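Note to self: keep these together.
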Amino acid sequence: MALVVLSTSTLAACSGGGSPDDGGSALAASDLRIVSLSTRAHLVTGGDVLLRVEVGSDLDPSQVEVTSNGDDVTESFRLVAQGAALTGLVQGLRDGDNEIEARISDGGASTKLQVVNHPISGPIVSGPHQTPYLCQTEEFTTAGGASLGAALDVNCSVATRVEYVYLSTLDQEFKSYSSAASAGPPSDVAEATTLDGSTVPFIVRVQTGTVNRAIYQSSMLHDPDDPEPDPWTGSRGWNGKLVYTHGGGCRNGWFRQGASTGAVLQEGLLEMGFAVTSASLNVFGQNCNDLLASETHIMVKERFVESYGEPVYTIGTGGSGGSYQSHQTADNYPGVFDGIIVSSSFPDVTSATIFTLADARLLHHYFTEVAPHEFSKDEQRRISGFGSWGSIANLSRGAARIDATYSKHATPEAQGAEVGLPELEPLRYSASNPEGIRATVYDHTVNVYGVDESTGFAARPLDNYGVQYGLEVLNHGKITPAQFLALNRDIGGFDADLDHVPQRHRAHPDAARRALDTGRILNGGGGLASTPVIDYRSFTDHREGGDIHMIVHQHSTRARLAKANGHADNHVMNVGGRWGYTEERPDLGGLFRSMDEWLMNLVEGDSSVLRSERVVQAKPSDLVDNCWDTRGEERVNVRESLSPDGTGTCGEIYPAYSTARLVAGAPLANDIVSCQLEPLDPADYEVSFTDEEWAELEAIFPDGVCDWSRGDAHSEGYQGTWLSFGPSPVNRAR
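Structure:
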């Protein structure tokens, strides 16, 4: 079969991205090698896969033939990379095993690749689909302003569509291009100047479809008068680089498809020439499950690569719940993202977030219901660790994401079972509907945690046994021993429905182990060890009404990186900027330009050096921790290391507060579910207890108190990356 030869300039946007199945070893001169470009060969979905056949220097690429399950597919391949390889989109794969073979037509060298195809509706690694599951295609509004219409099947599928919109110079709004161009190109089309200096019409091609029961979108600058983009023909408006956006939230994030993505019509990113992609299951307020989010990342990026070719690099970005996804996919499924830019960040939802929310609900209940007059507001705030007293009630409301029951009589601080859609409300679990859906993070992630046989509900990695609430405040002399004893005696814990009970709650051992060892609690030593990370935020710790997005959480992420890798030199913090892409708010655009420089240094660097070493070497010299001092007439950029101890100018302007668990002695990494216990020791306290008080302390903690230095009681060690919880049998989690 004849092969089409493409120039290297045509492929510039598709080179350098690396391959998930490429071991990196040199190819012998007389050998062939098949590499899956669009995804890992055992995780192919939708019946097609983009492949590269690498050809040894002694072989004639024009003599290469390719078959799929014995059928000749050579015509699907084109010569690339100055004739040293062929790239082709192989279609028509059957579900399950497929054999791809490349050989020299005269009977010389040959090689095979086993490809495992899965349905485009998933799953591939996240385990069985959740039911019920509400489709929201009719509620979803496309870039052109239309509805996707009714779903075609129970997997909420729709036909893939392409629309064009343009940025208008009249009002800086996106408008439908097809309708505007019906009488000729509109006169108000703006122009965009990309990172490489190209000036093109600000016309955006938006592809919308469904994978993994999610609605996805991909956008890029493209003039519809130009040739249609594909893996071999790049759009002249695309800089060859991809940004994956995310939405935040968590509460309500279950049992539904979602009616929005993380937004792909991002003017600032598109203007720089980036392609942008996202999906409805990557909005955490629609799917509060990092594993399902990662699976969706894998499948959406696969669709993108098959449509447009392999990007030079991919940046994951998002705030709050979007930071969970960026962190955890980068760490647990390395190669999906090459760098991440996160804001208002947390390490993950399972530890730093939920530990803090659960403790806030316990404290709020204690301070309002159990001992409403025993602690001043300042004492309450100090015990919580927060910078604002209002955060105690605020975060107690946030604990709804782990509360399975709803009551119309409950206060917001004691509410739960948030489902977000009226259709789901009658299905909620309750005493009168014990088989109903449980709207919690744990039940939404039951494929990881398993079922607690004692309750029949999802097992829970949540524990406060041995935790000494207010310990630091006691040792600083800000509360009395009597207050400390009363607090720890009466704070209690939660039952399986998050109702308050006198006894402390204890984690299910298997759930705690899996949370830590499979990456539901961010480890930092997987893919993040070699991933550039830029973490930016506005300062919210002093908000009167409270706010969960506290600066301490980015320090927890950095502590985990240092713990896992011995350093956190690939992690850069920024606080207090004007986060946008305009002259008035330029700082987010600046971060993307810095990340571009960092990643291009990595792409063009010495590949023989370990990426975990190159990631630090490649960091631009001027990309360092910094904050913005806005106290004067002119804002000033202060470039100094940001630390949690409040030192320096940045620490003075933007102090890092704490959490109740850190006040109780937990490490800054905040990654311990169940502490190991040690006997009570008077030497651990800066105050003196009477004999009677000490006896009471022993009664409160009969098995001892947390020895945080010994780590978690159930963890057996991080199991590594690219784990599967089914159906793929490859690298199954334990």
